[in-house]
Amino acid sequence: MDILLVASAFNSLSQRVHAELTDEGHRVDVVLASHGAEAIRTAVHEVCPELIVAPMLKTALPDDVWQAHTCLVVHPGPPGDRGPSSLDWAITEDSARWGVTVLQAEAAMDAGDVWASESFPMAPVGKSDLYRNEASDAAAAAVRLAVQRYADGSFKPQAQSDPSIRVVWRDFFRQEQRGIDWDTDSTETVLRKLRGADSQPGVLDELLGREVFLHGGHPEDRLRGRPGKLLATRAGAVCRATRDGAVWIPELRPRKNSGDPAPFRRPAAAVLASFPVPSGAAARARIGPPSWSGSRPGWLPEDTAPLELPAGRRTWTDIRYRQQGDIGFLTISFPGGAMSTDHCRRLLAAYRYALTRPTSLLVLGGARDFFSNGIHLNVIEAAADPAGESWANLNAMDDLVEAVLRTTDRMVVAALGGNAAAGGVMLALAADEVWCRTGTVLNPHYRRMGLYGSELWTYTLPRRVGAETAGRLTTEALPVSAAAAAAIGLVDRVVPVPAQEFGAEVDRMAAGLARDPDLPRRIAAKAAARRADEEQRPLAEYRRAELARMRAIFFDPQAPYHALRSAFVRKLPGGSPRPLTPVGEPVAGGEL
After folding, report:
1. Is the pTM of this model over 0.90?
2. Lower CB density within 10 Å: C or N end of the chain?
3. Are residues 396 and 258 in the same domain?
4. Is residue 95 pLDDT above 70, yes or no?
5. How many domains does the chain have?
6. CA 31 from centroid of its chain's CA atoms
7. What CATH number has the domain bearing residue 388?
8. Is residue 279 predicted with pLDDT exceeding 90?
9. With contact defined as beta carbons under 8 Å apart, do 77 and 99 qualify?
10. Distance between CA 324 and CA 511 in Å, rounded?
11. What is the mean pLDDT of residues 102-110?
12. Closest CA to 316 of 248, 243, 230
């Protein structure tokens, strides 16, 4: 069928629906609702779609569109659930299961007939992680079923007036309901509030006399202090005491009206370090002697978790190493999948440590949710010199990718439990094998941010898929499903398990690969292939050519990259002026 997707943003779910419907043979066009009602009407007129699907919609469809066409809207709640904050309420109420409903658009919000629904278990993770994984799995399945039913022509959707459907209206979840009382709320209550708002909208709070939004929350088992007190920093996050424990908060976002020139999410310690030095005896007594420096506040001690975390620890860190027999596992979990210069350098140090361990197989990744989305646009935008920080960040990514490519004494597997984009895809392609969870969406291109790209993609991408397909992937700049990626050789294995089971399945698969009697031969063969490739054209030449193109972009103030980056980070209206291209916003930065 000819299907038109209408989405407020081309986010992770919209991309997945686009990719999977395309895989099933449908012609899929996209129009962004952010371009306005007239753009939607124009798209409908030009495409003449047989069906309109809205996977992610913040505003109502124009009346004349849904009255003249069948429009299926994805609602992140079970049948009968209505309102704009369904997942927020589900997390707040500690629901064991939740659901996704595909319903027909009509005048009343979320009140249309039900075409399909799927339920899913509620995992103890942040809302955005839940949305991109369990909810996304259910939504994609429900959309495919609804489209199949519509195409069949015999299915009659279920009216929500049916007695079997219990209708519940849930109001918009306001900041007043998210607020944390640090003196009385337990650690679990604090975590639930933080997780219910981790990506959007965050939890409004006050730190050092400034209003900020807190993003993300993880438990800490050892550090303690007066409730509400900042205790330490670690890998850019800050630790804050609760009445019965402490939590790690990876990111902060200054309030827009605070006067902060960078009112967007970035590492928490960096945001605090950008605040003016507090004055007065009361402030000094509360936070200790200030000595601000670098990207973190000097008055907070740095608490460094060991790379190999002891069993039983309940704490947060974004890079971990563990070893099981002949297998090393280097697990990464960066907020939003974005990797700053610091992230890349710390991961490279951890990777080099992993190479000192006596293993024949090293697994990179393996956690649920994002693998990597490449360079950290938010950190770059906040830098005093964005061009210089872009350059530093890209070189740090290149150093990491080159280290993986030059590993010839063991097999390296990239295990993607979630989405990857741009340099994050190229990081995965540097490994010998790429394993993807079903439902993963890959964006192996840079074009939507106005970039040529680096991370040695001109070597790794054609090596995997051929020059012609590499050219198509990077110029069309469309999302690729895990199944389609496997079909073209972009990935080696698709892992058909729920998000919660991905880590255990990767362990099982890695154990099988490590036992393979052919593994020593494969390691020797890859070392020989690397030597032959190096003789034909050194990696340094690929890198030099890519970086020359990127440097010209970074240090050109008129290059589109700077305006595209700023619009994305600051959530300004953006995307292509052409209404029928699935571009919207880039996927870096952890958007829902």
Report:
1. yes
2. N
3. no
4. yes
5. 3
6. 22
7. 3.90.226.10
8. no
9. yes
10. 9
11. 93
12. 248
